[in-house]
């Protein structure tokens, strides 16, 4: 592993450092605590829970699905059998391909864009085949265990929210957490759900760089599963935020991008009018949870514009 300062800097994320290592000619990624790699203090409840949930999610996807996710070779939390190694870590395959840059895709031909969108529909259909019993984060597969919802602002604050089995429970617990954190000056994110019998793993950060592609825009991998939780069908299979027309989104408009409509059309062509409707009607849920995440980090005018967009998407008129 190249441990030069310039190399480590390029590998740093928010809480993770992804270091490439070679073992017998095989390219692997070692994900560990970025603070520790910078020379700071390692570990903490936030990192430990993130690693546990990411490892369980990767193992679940590898065992149950055909998604191109990294093979997990080893993982450990700080302490226990890992005392001599320092902070917790995950060791997994480094997948081939480069991160998808959505704005670059828009420069490609219509055929290339359709090829990529078709693959995204296939990924959604594959995830749909593997429902989960509650809105939560996976923490173990033996037996399958759903723990509290993983998110840094929740785990480092009041602790993971309990799993929810209905839409009402999920909304109520998340909103109450937001209200409680507002009183203390902390911030917490929320996660939606519906009253259906099943929930589905949702990629937590779908800006595009979680998708690896080759030069022909074939998807070679789906990465970055830390903070992964399950969600309702209406949220798990809504359009990824990489497709949103952000200028309009921040200006209160709920206009769908051309690619979002194309995604819905592809679902219809497969006989899945239900998923097409999820894509077309997803903006209200997307706005609700985006607003809860972002409201405290926006200036007043931007926050108000986002709130007006939510009201419009929910067919609520201001008095």
How is this structure best described in words?
With about 325 residues, the protein is of the alpha+beta class. It has helices at about 5-10, 35, 45-65, 100-105, 110-130, 150-155, 165-185, 235, 245-250, 260-270, 275-280, 285-295, 300-315; strands at about 15-25, 25-35, 70-75, 90-95, 100, 135-140, 145, 200, 210-215, 220, 230. Strands 1-2-4-3 form a 4-stranded antiparallel β-sheet. Strands 5-9-10 form a 3-stranded antiparallel β-sheet, with no helix packed on it. A hairpin with a 5-residue loop joins strand 9 and strand 10 (about 220). Helix 5 (about 110-130) crosses helix 10 (about 260-270) and helix 10 (about 260-270) runs antiparallel to helix 11. It starts with a helix and ends in a 6-residue tail after the last helix. Mean pLDDT is about 80; it is low at about 1-15, about 35-40 and about 180-195.
Q: Overall mean pLDDT score?
A: 81
Find the structural class using helix and strand composition.
alpha+beta
- Please give the radius of gyration in angstroms: 20 Å
Helix fraction?
40-55%
Number of strands: 11
Largest sheet: 4 strands, antiparallel
With strands numbered from the N-terminus, the spatial order across the biggest sheet is: 1-2-4-3
Overall outline: globular
Question: Ends: how far apart?
Answer: 61 Å
Unreliable residue stretches: 2-13, 36-42, 182-195
Strand content: 15-25%
Task: Summarize the entry for a quick read.
The chain is an alpha+beta fold and 319 residues long. It has helices at 5-11, 34-37, 45-64, 102-105, 110-128, 152-155, 167-184, 233-236, 246-250, 258-269, 273-280, 283-294, 300-313, and strands spanning 16-23, 26-33, 72-76, 89-93, 98-99, 137-141, 144-147, 200-202, 211-213, 219-222, 229-231.
């Amino acid at each position: 592993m190249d441990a030069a300062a310039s190399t480590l800097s390029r590998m740093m994320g928010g809480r993770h450092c992804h270091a490439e290592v070679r073992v017998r000619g095989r390219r692997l990624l070692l994900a560990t605590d970025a603070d520790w790699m910078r020379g700071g203090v390692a570990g903490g409840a936030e990192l430990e829970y993130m690693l546990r949930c990411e490892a369980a999610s990767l193992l679940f996807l590898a065992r149950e699905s055909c998604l191109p996710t990294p093979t997990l070779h080893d993982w450990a939390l700080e302490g226990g059998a890992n005392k001599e190694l320092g902070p917790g870590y995950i060791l997994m395959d480094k997948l081939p391909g480069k991160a998808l840059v959505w704005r670059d895709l828009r420069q490609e031909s219509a055929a290339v864009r359709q090829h990529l969108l078709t693959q995204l529909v296939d990924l959604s259909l594959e995830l749909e085949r593997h429902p989960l019993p509650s809105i939560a984060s996976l923490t173990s597969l033996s037996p399958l265990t759903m723990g509290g919802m993983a998110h840094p602002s929740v785990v480092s604050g009041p602790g993971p929210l309990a799993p929810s089995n209905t839409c009402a429970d999920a909304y109520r617990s998340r909103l109450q957490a937001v209200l409680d954190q507002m009183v203390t000056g902390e911030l917490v994110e929320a996660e939606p759900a519906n009253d259906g019998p099943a929930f589905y793993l949702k990629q937590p950060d779908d800006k595009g760089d979680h998708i690896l592609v080759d030069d022909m825009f074939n998807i070679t991998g789906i990465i970055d599963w830390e903070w992964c939780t399950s969600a309702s069908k209406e949220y798990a299979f809504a359009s990824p935020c990489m497709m949103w027309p952000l200028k309009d989104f921040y200006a209160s408009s709920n206009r769908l991008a051309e690619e979002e409509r194309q995604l819905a059309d592809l679902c219809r062509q497969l006989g899945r009018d239900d998923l097409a409707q999820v894509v077309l009607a997803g903006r209200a849920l997307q706005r609700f949870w985006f607003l809860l995440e972002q409201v405290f980090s926006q200036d007043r005018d931007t926050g108000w514009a986002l709130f007006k967009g939510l009201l419009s998407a929910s067919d609520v008129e201001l008095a």
